């Protein structure tokens, strides 16, 4: 799915600190025209790309190129990671030399998600750059609530000093790429069983019954085998992932229309009851929905 990030022409991209405790999950597979990099500040973040699972921890630097369909599948409760994206026009202006030419590609010739583990001094340098840039930006709660800048039709990323941000994004991009070139390619990928891949696909279809028995039947394996293999390969229980998918659907429904009640959005997302939704919501954000919505 090609995602429109709705970046205003005045900006060469955007940067924000995603925090699991206040950032709604966006778990559907997607890609976008912009180059993206992530730097994990704390906790763990798990992606799936091309049938492989990647788990990144503090100090990880990862790159998501425009043609790379990627899917966030899990984050630990304490996860925090910087997300930076860079527009194609910015890349064309900033990456003129041979050293930076790969950043203008739609995808690297190598397969998988390009990543590395930063040395402490590299991590500190990049984090310092990003901390300074977001200090003059929009409120962190607002940025986390919008979760990708495009789910709310009237929202666009803003910064109090666009020129400062644009200059900083360029420096950040080049600094991160120089750091990446100082490392060998990381090796964190885990190949996923075909039944697990198919399960991930099915659970992103809103009209598919996502109970374990239906998923097992559709993927041609037993319920116990699917449950065990999913947890082993994806790194989280299938039920937890299913609840995250439902929570993501809730946010999309709740934001896209103000018609109907909160309960209508809860049931439309696939939760069996408000009590179940409340439990999942509180586990994800630490507070009940009435305090945060």
Tell me what the structure shows.
- The mean pLDDT is 88.
- By secondary structure, this protein is α+β, with helices and mostly antiparallel strands.
- Strand 3 and strand 4 form a beta hairpin.
- 42% of the residues lie in helices and 16% in strands.
- It is globular, with a radius of gyration of 19 Å.
- The strands form two sheets. A five-stranded antiparallel sheet has the order 1-7-2-5-8.
- It folds into two domains: 13-181, Sandwich (Jelly Rolls), CATH 2.60.120; 192-292, Arc Repressor Mutant, subunit A (Orthogonal Bundle), CATH 1.10.10.
CATH architecture of the largest domain: Sandwich
Count of discrete domains? 2
Helix content: 40-55%
How large is the share of residues in beta strands?
Answer: 15-25%
Structural class: alpha+beta
Name of the top-level CATH class of the largest domain = Mainly Beta
Taking the sheet with the most strands, its summary is: 5 strands, antiparallel
Shape: globular
Average pLDDT, rounded to a whole number, is: 88
CATH superfamily of the largest domain: Regulatory protein AraC
Strand segment count: 9
Q: What is the H-and-E element order? A: EEEEEEEHEHHHEHHHHHHH
CATH topology of the largest domain: Jelly Rolls
Tally of alpha and pi helices: 11
Query: pLDDT under 50 segments (min length 5)?
Result: none
């Amino acid at each position: 799915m090609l995602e429109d990030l709705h970046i205003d022409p005045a900006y060469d991209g955007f940067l924000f600190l995603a925090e699991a405790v206040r950032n709604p999950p966006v778990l559907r597979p997607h890609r976008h025209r912009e180059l993206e990099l992530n730097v994990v500040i704390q906790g763990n973040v798990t992606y799936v790309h091309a049938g492989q699972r990647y788990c990144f921890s503090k100090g990880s630097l990862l790159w998501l190129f425009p043609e790379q369909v990627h899917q966030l599948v899990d984050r630990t409760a304490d996860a925090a990671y910087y997300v930076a994206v860079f527009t194609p026009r910015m890349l064309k202006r900033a990456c003129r030399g041979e050293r930076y030419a790969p950043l203008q590609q739609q995808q690297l010739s190598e397969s998988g998600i390009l990543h590395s583990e930063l040395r402490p001094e590299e991590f500190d340098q990049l984090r310092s750059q990003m901390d300074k840039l977001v200090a003059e930006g929009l409120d962190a709660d607002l940025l986390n609530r919008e979760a990708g800048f495009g789910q709310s039709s009237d929202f666009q990323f803003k910064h109090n000093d666009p020129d400062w941000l644009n200059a900083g994004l360029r420096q950040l991009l080049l600094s991160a790429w120089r750091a990446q070139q100082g490392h060998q390619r990381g090796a964190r990928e885990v190949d996923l069983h075909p039944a697990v891949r198919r399960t991930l696909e099915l659970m992103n279809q809103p009209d598919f019954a996502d109970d374990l028995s239906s998923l097992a039947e559709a993927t041609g394996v037993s319920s116990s085998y699917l449950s065990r293999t999913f947890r082993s390969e994806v790194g989280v229980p299938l039920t937890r992932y299913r609840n995250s998918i439902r929570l993501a659907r809730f946010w999309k429904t709740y934001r896209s229309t103000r018609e109907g009640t909160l309960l209508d959005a809860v049931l439309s997302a696939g939760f069996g009851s408000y009590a179940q939704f409340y439990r999942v919501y509180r586990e994800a954000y630490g507070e009940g929905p009435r305090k945060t919505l």
